[in-house]
Amino acid sequence: MGFDPRGVGYSTNINCPEPGDNPGPLPDGPLARDTARRLYDAQVRDNAACGRSDPAFLAQLTTLNVARDLDRIRTGLHERKLNFLGISWGTWLGVVYRSTFPTSVGRMFLDSVAIPRFSIPAFEKGRDAAAVALRTGYDTNPRRFTDIDDTFDGDFIALAASQDAPAWPLASQVLKELRDATGPTAPPTVKEVVSEPEPPSEPPADLPEQGNRTMNRAAFCNEDPARLGFDAAWAAYRQRLADNPMTSPNRGFSAGCAGWPLPVQQVRLRPGGGSLVLSGHRFETPSPYEWTWQTKAIVGGTVYTVNDDVHGSVLRVPECAADLLTYFTTGEIDHGCAGVPVPTGPDLPSAEALSRTDRAQRIDQRESLAISSGWTVADTVVRGT
Fold it and tell me: Rg (Cα) of the chain, in Å, rounded?
């Protein structure tokens, strides 16, 4: 059984109005402080306008309230306990539910543990001087080609360098072509990855939305006390650039929840009942592996290590999915699985791995992670026992 959390899909939802002002296009290359200030002020105004658009409803969009809704589902189904699979944001919902209703959990498996208020370690697990030099060079001298409209600056190099392992061969080819490019036209792989993808087919008219950005923003800003002023947000952004010179985007600056006008409603985590497995991916960045162990220290459980860097991949890898099935069937779990393999051989992955849409999503994701905001609502599956 799955369910739509309040604020999403078939549940009652709301969409905040579009921002009333646009800070305009950003210049290529490193972000200047005055440009960042302009972005910050616009985002603060947007947060304030969103929060005031329907404060009575938006104040109810919290993880704790979704956990209460979930327990009402359990009660309505006359189930004594629930088995629970949560992925990404669903892991945060899982630990909040287990903390709030400790006697109502049977078996709980949380994949890519996402606890937004933990300190964020450096994204970069390794660093190559030549790649950093390439990024710095494109920051200083952004490159354009005559046959495509895109500008290639340090942010594009950072995007290529921060791909998940399945896209490494493609990313390596892109970086090689940009390093060696001398002519006026774009190298072939570079041109392919920035080309417009085929438009997706129209979804059925009655298909519910798969996520809701307003619920996303409200759920985290309602719970996030870090509503930073500009100076603190700018200092945090500059520190990320210093810590991650290869993969941190120049324009990954965000005001986070600054300006959100509704009261903070923090959740207290505590150990709960039932069996808990915390699945962490050793090399991933959206949910750093360190979060898995930090969560265990607070709420307990068993750590299951996935030896890849792909967010929420357990269901996509047969070996890992088999372990998951065994856990929910018997209660037994191995220590981990190999995860998504790194591609080998001459064939490159699909160019969609570095598409323009993916570029925007990844940069937006890193902005959100930087100041405790912006996890999208992910899958949650519940089964009674």
Answer: 22
* Structure-token match 């981990």, residue found: 336
344: exposed, middle or buried (Cβ count in 10 Å: 0-12, 13-18, 19+): exposed
Q: How many residues comprise the chain?
A: 385
Q: How far is the C-alpha of 39 from the C-alpha of 153, rounded, in Å?
A: 20
Q: Which among 58, 56, 60, 62 is positioned nearest to 96, based on CA atoms?
A: 62
Tokens of 313: 């991949």
Task: List CB contacts of 101: < 8 A, sequence separation 6 or more.
Answer: 67, 71, 272
- Give residue for tokens 């104040």: 59
Cβ atoms of residues 164 and 309 within 8 Å: yes
Q: Could you read off the pLDDT tens digit of each residue along the chain, which spans 385 residues?
A: 678 899 988 888 899 988 877 777 777 778 899 999 999 999 999 999 999 999 999 999 999 999 999 999 999 999 999 999 999 989 999 999 999 999 999 999 999 998 766 555 545 666 678 888 898 899 889 999 999 988 898 888 888 888 888 888 888 899 999 999 999 999 999 998 888 777 777 778 777 777 889 999 999 899 988 899 999 999 999 988 888 888 877 778 899 999 999 999 988 899 988 999 999 999 988 889 999 999 999 999 999 999 999 999 999 999 999 999 999 999 999 999 999 988 776 566 665 555 443 444 433 333 332 222 222 333 344 443 3
CB atoms within 10 A of CB 233: 25
Q: For 320, phi and psi rounded to 5 degrees?
A: -70, -40
- Spell out the residues 6+ positions from residue 20 whose beta carbon is closer than 8 angstroms to its own: 45, 46, 49
Name residue, tokens 């998940």: 164
Rounded CA gap, 256 and 264, in Å? 14
For 190, residues 6+ apart whose C-beta sits below 8 A from its C-beta are 145, 152, 174, 177, 178, 181
Query: What single-letter DSSP state applies at residue 149?
Result: -
CA distance 116 to 225: 11
Q: How far apart are CA 173 and CA 181, in angstroms?
A: 12
pTM above 0.70, yes or no: yes
The identity of residue 222, as a single letter, is N
Alpha helices in the chain (DSSP H): 33-53, 55-58, 63-76, 89-100, 129-140, 154-161, 168-180, 188-194, 213-223, 230-243, 289-299, 318-330, 356-370
